[in-house]
Amino acid sequence: MNQYKIVLIIFLIILFSLCPLEKDRHVNNNIDIKKVLQNTPKSSYENAITTIVTKAEQIKKQKCKRQQELTLLKREQELRKKQVRLEKQHKHSSIEENKANIEWLTFHATYYGKDCSGCSGITATGINVHETIYFKGFRIVAVDPTIIPLGTIVEIKTPNERFNAIAADKGGAIKGYRLDILVESERISTQYGRHDVQLRIIK
Length: 203
Prior knowledge:
Blueprint: H1 2-18, H2 33-39, H3 42-100, E1 105-113, E2 134-135, E3 138-142, E4 153-157, E5 162-169, E6 178-183, H4 186-192, E7 195-201
Parallel strand pairs: 1-6, 3-5
Antiparallel strand pairs: 1-7, 2-3, 3-6, 4-5, 4-7
Helix pairs in contact: 1-3
């Protein structure tokens, strides 16, 4: 649009310059543009140049201003993305740090099979363990609910393995800091024996 304005200004200047020569057109229809320009007052050139330069400067300033605005907007977007990325990293670090700082507790562990004497095959929380020793990917352990509430997810380190489990059962002999870990059968439970394990609550 600014370019059209400049062309229009130049056109009007030339048009106004030609107006005084209108009466001469009947004498010479082949007016030389060079002569027209020579007959145009010098002030007209100066005004035209001033106008064009002024418009050019305005266009340049507007373009520079727009470029600065775009650069500033781009920087703000980059800073916003960086801030979001740092917040995510900080949140992830905090989660990992909190997880690492969860206290490990010592429990005395025994093992029991799903075919144990007097066992119904259904845990205290209603899980059927006739065909499995897992629930939703977690091992099943019996606990003292006054120490570890039923439904709690825990991580356990034994001398032989490390796994996540759900406190889904309880037993009359399981009191205080004791665990009973469910295995495939009573025969297998005797192979594990009893020992201390490390436990920490996940959720």
